[in-house]
Write a structure and sequence with these properties.
Blueprint: H1 6-19, E1 39-44, E2 50-58, E3 63-70, E4 74-86, E5 90-96, E6 99-103, E7 108-111, E8 116-119
Length: about 120
């Protein structure tokens, strides 16, 4: 069961927000590029207590929508798109959209992902 203490919830949300960057170093290949309307579903309700659904809602520009919910009392959803800027010696990856996390007690947290800059390309 999720805690109803706001400080603990904020800690969970902070850990969740940075967890997407944990495997960044090993993702050097071509990214997954689904077709318009293609969905991805993962249901591990029996083993881990949550299920996930995402759909590619636009192909040009690529935009994805996601929803995840848990039997432990939280849900998360987001819309995600991205733009990039190449400036010769560095590249910026600029994510657009917001991530929402709501707990059973009604606390609702919203955050956006940070711009990532890679220097010394050339």
């Amino acid at each position: 069961k999720c805690s109803e203490r706001p400080l603990e919830q904020m800690c969970w949300v902070a850990a969740y927000s940075v967890s997407t960057y944990a495997s960044t170093i090993s993702r050097t290949g071509k990214p997954f590029n689904p077709l318009l309307g293609e969905t991805y579903e993962y249901d591990c309700t029996d083993s881990l207590g949550w299920r996930y659904l995402s759909e590619q809602v636009s192909h040009h520009p690529p935009i994805a929508a996601m929803h995840c919910e848990s039997v432990r009392g939280w849900s998360s959803w987001q819309e995600f798109s991205m733009s990039s800027k190449f400036r010769g010696k560095y590249i910026n990856a600029i994510p657009h959209g917001y991530v929402h996390v709501r707990f059973r007690d009604g606390n609702h947290y919203i955050f956006n992902k940070v711009t990532t800059t890679v220097h010394n390309i050339i």
